[in-house]
Input
Amino acid sequence: MQNVFRSSRAGVAAAALSAALLTGCATTANPNDPLEGFNRAMFSFNDQLDKAVVKPAAQVYDAVLPSPVRTGVGNVFGNLADPWIALNNILQGKFAEGVSDLMRFALNSTWGLLGVLDIASEAGLPKHDEDLGQTLGRWGVGEGAYIVLPFFGPRTVRDAVAMPADMMGETPFAIDHVPTRNTVTATRVVHARSVLLGADHTLEEAALDRYAFVRDFYLEQRRYKVDDGRQERVYEDFDEQSAAPLGDEVDAAAAAAVERLELVGIGELALERAAASPTHKN
Output
């Protein structure tokens, strides 16, 4: 990968973290969110960027390309992520899952026509969702404060530290040819956003404070993933007036909100959940 590209990406993350530390005086009653002032500003920035650029592009993409083509595109990106997912499963001591991920990649890359067809799932090899942030969590590394990065969206400090490795471990950031990498990156972001079309309205109805709802969902989601679903997901900061009763639709909408504000590093599990939601279409 080009050194300039690496430096620019690292610079964005470092600048965001530095700005967050400088705004640390903006405290909050939530101990997980000591940088709430900065985070709300970045949440609003990412939200406006989505509304102005990403969502319109996703709507055109959704309207122009037929569903089988969009499914194939999603399958290709999911397939390319499987080796990194396999490595993280192995690093977490989940060797059977890691081997399954490698078998998925081999099967879909060959008989699945370079990943266009997800025949591995049909063969009983399930899709997993692992990253270095989850691996560090399994190793006992604390999550740290919640932070919203510009362009990159919701993170914890642990996930922000792991983000460069996750970006390198997945495509398109491992592509050395800059124009190709940029094209693939844009396609990946637009495709992922198109999957989430239609979830916005559900989120608007789910909570009066969208920022707090997305924050709590993200934190619960990450803890749930680190523990492999062994803890119950609870949204603690909402009373009956600020949040709708929890259910699959609200859960999918919150996942959609997290992912659509995260322009890089789209989570495959959240995409699959949103795609299965009845609110998929706008």
